[in-house]
Design goal:
The complex is a heterodimer of chains A (251) and B (192). Chain A is of the alpha/beta class and 251 residues long. Chain A is built from nine helices and ten strands. Chain A has one domain: Rossmann fold. By secondary structure, chain B is mainly alpha-helical. The chains are: A alpha/beta (251), B mainly alpha (192). Chains A and B meet through strand 2, helix 8, strand 9, strand 10 and helix 9 of A and helix 5 and helix 6 of B.
């Protein structure tokens, strides 16, 4: 999606001047240091940075899994600090989906049951949850039958089921923390391609990765260091000529 | 096989990565013939073994045909079996820039690394977009993979540069920041 188009739409997720300190006093660790980031509907943002740069902390705060020490985090225009616990739970279950490096699938449940689980926790009737789960699994390109167990799926298929779980019920945003960590390059490419397709269809995607290859699918790559955003990258314009462009740019 | 044919096949097998000058092909064939690695199987038309004019304008003159010799096959096998040895690091503009930036101190080097990495990432993002918009359906057979492998090579090398820049950043970041710098953090730095 065009960068200017993205900028014109109200953000799905917005962090403003966010500070996050773990611990207190002189021993406190400042994991995020005045970070501001807005993710537009349908935008694919990759967060890149070394260990302890704050990228996972940023993702946790963006999804309401943890709160900031100061600054504001808003999802769908709502400041999470102003929400009652039940409302915050609704945001976490219905508006935002999470994908992790370890797929966190329940081994004793089938693929479709895994995808249904958070929907039913969120209060959706079983029949409706099943329909939503089947639709999500079809969307991520898992072939039937859907009643296979995680142990019968390949790593790439398991991550697809995890992504289906993250998008089922039409979430506004997917937050993915190193989703390719356990996958080989070709399988990882397919998973990131899937995230890019979901973004193109309107879901906001925030991908945390330390792997440069996977960051390049994003509309915007945000580089973090020491709890701060140090730079951002959008696709170079004009689109490169087919040969030799990669070699020509850095020098 | 004649020169023009050789050029076409080479370019097909290498995915068009290295367009060849037809004149180079003829001089190379002559050199290989001189060294006994190829032999002429059918002399071309025209004046006594002179190189034929490029195919399009050759107007009925016959091509000069070559075939690989036994010695040529041995040389080819040796070439496939040889592996690259330890070489001195290639003189590389990116490497030079970062090394020389060290002279300016931690902050300067970090700024150079950050800038180079962003530019390279932006180029790869653009390339990824171009690849995604022209989803090519791969043909059959190993040779049909050539354009994909060429693209993979360019992207993988750029990714290696990015990984190296990430590593540079991590190593530079571990150096203690200069005292009194505005960027120091209250939690890891006492009073200067």
């Amino acid at each position: 999606m065009n960068v200017n188009e993205l900028a014109m739409r109200a953000p799905t997720i917005e962090l403003r001047d966010v500070v996050k300190v773990y611990g207190s006093g002189p021993a406190g660790v400042r994991a995020l240091d005045r970070v501001s980031l807005a993710v537009a509907p349908g935008e694919f943002v990759a967060i890149s940075g070394p260990s302890a740069s704050g990228k996972s902390t940023l993702l946790h705060l963006a999804g309401g899994l943890d709160g900031p020490t100061s600054g504001t985090v808003a999802v769908g225009g709502e400041d999470l600090a102003h929400l009652r616990p039940a409302e915050l739970a609704r945001v976490r279950r219905r508006q935002v989906g999470y994908v992790f490096q370890r797929y966190n699938l329940v081994a004793s449940l089938t693929a479709v049951e895994n995808v249904m689980l958070p929907l039913e926790f969120g209060g959706m009737p079983t029949r409706q949850a099943r329909d939503a789960a089947v639709a999500a699994i079809e969307r991520v390109g898992i072939s039937r039958p859907f009643d296979r167990f995680p142990d019968d799926l390949s790593g790439g298929e398991r991550q697809r089921v995890a992504i289906a779980r993250a998008i089922a019920g039409d979430r506004d945003a997917i937050l993915a923390d190193e989703p390719t960590g356990a996958l080989d390059t070709i399988t990882g490419d397919l998973v990131i391609e899937l995230l890019a397709e979901l973004a193109a269809a309107g879901t906001s995607v925030v991908l945390v990765t330390h792997e440069p290859r996977f960051a390049t699918w994003a509309d915007r790559v945000v580089f973090m260091r020491d709890g701060r955003i140090v730079d951002e990258s959008v696709p170079a314009a004009p689109p490169s000529p087919p040969e030799a462009s990669v070699e020509a740019v850095p020098s | 096989m004649y020169g023009y044919q050789l050029r076409s096949e080479f370019e097909a097998y290498t995915g068009g990565a290295w367009p060849l000058n037809i004149g180079q092909v003829y001089t190379t064939l002559e050199r290989l013939e001189r060294d006994g690695l190829v032999a002429i199987t059918r002399p071309g038309g025209g004046d006594g073994g002179d190189r034929p004019v490029a195919a399009a304008g050759s107007g009925g003159r016959e091509h000069k045909y070559y075939a690989i010799t036994r010695a040529g096959r041995d040389a080819l096998r040796d070439w496939f079996e040889a592996t690259a040895g330890d070489e001195p690091p290639p003189r590389d503009e990116l490497l030079s820039k970062v090394l020389l930036a060290l002279a300016g101190g931690r902050e300067h080097a970090l700024a150079v690394v950050t800038r180079q990495r962003t530019a390279l990432t932006a180029a790869l993002q653009a390339r990824r977009r171009a690849l995604r918009s022209t989803s090519t359906s791969p043909g059959n057979g190993a040779a049909a993979l050539a354009p994909t492998l060429v693209a993979d090579a360019l992207v993988s090398r750029a990714e290696a540069d990015l990984r190296w820049l990430d590593l540079c950043e991590a190593r530079l970041a571990q150096l203690s920041p200069p005292a009194g710098n505005g960027a120091t953090r209250s939690d890891d730095q006492g009073e200067p």
